[in-house]
Amino acid sequence: MIAPYVGTEEWITSLDLPIERVWDPWYIGIQIAGYQMTYAKNGYSLTYATVKAKIITLKSQAISIDTYYSDHFETLAS
């Protein structure tokens, strides 16, 4: 699946948020699962993340990256 990102990046730029962390990889085990950039202002933060679209192995179980992604970022938002 391909998702457009230019509009998202333009929207984030329009928010005029300072960058807190420049592109950092995020991992599942030792594999890079995607990249993320964090913006922050006045105690609030926004994380913009990319996701590699493939099946990976984690602890001997095949899981889809989108399942891990949703679980990982829902936990961060809590």
UniProtKB/TrEMBL annotation:
Any GO BP: proteolysis
Superkingdom: Eukaryota
InterPro entries with a match to the protein in the record: AB_hydrolase_fold, Peptidase_S10
Keyword Manganese among UniProt keywords: no
Gene Ontology MF terms in the entry: serine-type carboxypeptidase activity
Alphabetical UniProt keywords: Carboxypeptidase, Hydrolase, Protease
Family statement drawn from the similarity comment of this UniProt entry: Belongs to the peptidase S10 family.
Name under which the protein is recorded: Peptidase S10, serine carboxypeptidase, Alpha/Beta hydrolase fold protein
Lineage per the UniProt record: Eukaryota, Viridiplantae, Streptophyta, Embryophyta, Tracheophyta
